From TrEMBL:
Gene3D superfamilies: Homeodomain-like. Pfam families: GcrA (PF07750). Residues 42-91 are annotated as: Disordered. InterPro entries: GcrA. The lineage of its organism: Bacteria, Pseudomonadati, Pseudomonadota, Alphaproteobacteria, Hyphomicrobiales. It comes from Roseibium polysiphoniae. Residues 63-82 have a biased composition (Low complexity). This is GcrA cell cycle regulator.
Length: 178
């Protein structure tokens, strides 16, 4: 499809009459709405006439009585939107994530007498690392653990969470986000 002089003139006429790009594309045939918009911009056509709105009743403004205004609390001003509102931003406040309380401080959990270094670990001691491995005060929990389990009962609760709990926690996080 090429833009002939006749088609360009028809485009200009329809545009100034206030027709939409989709309507013009349908009238011209063989051209898309985006092609019409592109041609309008290349031609430098400016604003156009508004399409006349159908006659309607004038809107009445709402009046609030003293009894209703005193019982309702004042609301924040809402942003005004025009046109399509499919992607309108929600005005509700964003949900705040609940922070789980952390476990007891590690220093109180593991007495100094039970702390273990890499050299003192056995298969029956808790191998939960505590601190930064590059620092001098790094150690392992060192409490006794059950056979076949690398951690003590407290650290097992942290390390091994039931699948249902993880799924429930994940659902609450996604429900808050949406």
């Amino acid at each position: 499809m090429s833009w002939t002089n006749e088609r360009v003139e028809l485009l200009k006429k329809l545009w100034t009459e206030g027709h939409s790009a989709s309507q013009i594309a349908g009238e011209l045939g063989g051209v898309t709405r985006n092609a019409v918009i592109g041609k309008v911009h290349r031609l430098g056509l400016s604003g156009r006439a508004k399409t006349p709105a159908p006659a309607s009743k004038p809107r009445r403004s709402r009046t609030t009585t003293a009894s209703t205004s005193s019982s309702s609390r004042p609301s924040a001003p809402q942003p005004q939107t025009q046109g399509a509102t499919a992607l309108k931003m929600e005005t509700a406040p964003a949900p705040v994530a609940q922070i789980k309380p952390e476990a007891e401080p590690i220093a109180e959990l593991v007495p100094i007498s039970e702390r273990a270094s890499i050299l003192t670990l056995t298969e029956r001691t808790c191998k939960w690392p505590i601190g930064d491995p590059s620092s001098d005060d790094f150690y392992f929990c060192g409490r006794s653990s059950d056979a076949g389990v690398p951690y003590c009962a407290h650290h097992c609760k942290i390390a091994y969470q039931p699948v249902s709990d993880r799924r429930r926690d994940r659902k609450t996080v996604t429900a808050r986000a949406s």
